Hints:
CATH architecture of the largest domain: 3-Layer(aba) Sandwich
Number of strands: 13
Order of helices and strands: HHEEEHHHHHEEEEHEEHEEEEH
Shape: globular
Radius of gyration: 20 Å
Strand order of the largest sheet: 2-1-13-12-11-10
Number of domains: 2
Structural class: alpha+beta
CATH class of the largest domain: Alpha Beta
Amino acid sequence: xxSNTPDYFxxxxxxxxxxxLKEPDEIREVAGxxxxxxDAICHEQERRYGEHSWSIAILRHGYLVREFHTFxxxxxxxxxxxxxTKSFSGTAxxxxxxxxxxxxxxxxxxxxTPAYPFIPEGYPLSDRRKESITFRQLLSMTSGIRGEDSxxxxxxxxxxxxxFEFALGKAPNRFGKWADxxxxxxxxxxxxxxxxxxxxxxxxxxITGREMDDYLHERIFRPIGIENxxxxxxxxxxxxxxxxxxxxGVHISARELARFCYLMLKRGSWEGRQLVPEGxxxxxxxxxxxxxxxxxxxxxxxxxxxxxxxxxxxxxxxxGYRYNKGYxxxxxxxxxxxxxxxxxxxxxxKVVTWNEQDFVRGIVEACIK
Length: 369
């Protein structure tokens, strides 16, 4: 870890924002990176994907080393980061578990607490096995609630169906698919599931009487200087809710997302305040279960070198549709963020619309000391 970083925390954008490096020589000396290689990587991104709108920020040793946008994007332009939102929701739950441990809320809540007793809207149960689903299983995608593998991808519902009603198995989505029956006993398989993550919004509101958006604005966003973030709600209008959207809906710029990732790089500490418990960071950014070694608790991880082969084992990331990304590599003191409107993920695994491995590897290999 470079000696430049331990005590540096950027002021909010309205008060100057990130410190940055411009000249190749200072980037080499201070940040230990090859500016020409970074420029080549980002120019290649523009050549390949310039028809989309996106923004990239690269930070090392607490310096904004390089920042690239397409022509129609400004430094403060926000994008919906889609499923990258899940890592924000997971952070809210990490704080909630710690609040319970410290006696700040009356309920005793832990990873192994059954979830449905805190989701009264879920009764009567559409599947009796739901009674045993724990918060650990919801956060690690092992609840058995249907998701991508079961044609229940996303939360698109018809006008006459509420999103939480679909998630709880009370109604079908707009394609006529149901999430009412589990795919197996909770804790016995991995399935990436937006309906499962939606349960966390209902339970959070039930336990705390607050929404995750308001909670994180108070506990995280304001303390670290995030000024330009919005978070969608879903439901209401005669349906369950509205509640903070747990699986998608954070709108944020690359610079502001880098601020959130930098907090994780700094082990949850900001200007002497421990905002995110270190224990939660250690747990959530490592493999959470045996079925998918690349998934922690709402973060994608590289514990077993499965997600990003050849990259550092301590690397972790938030990840959303249309290649919205926030990478944290503690061993390199490196943060990389990408937000944008595309390219879209092609459902055909043989079609590579954006090469994540090459993009990240190129930036990592630009670290020369």
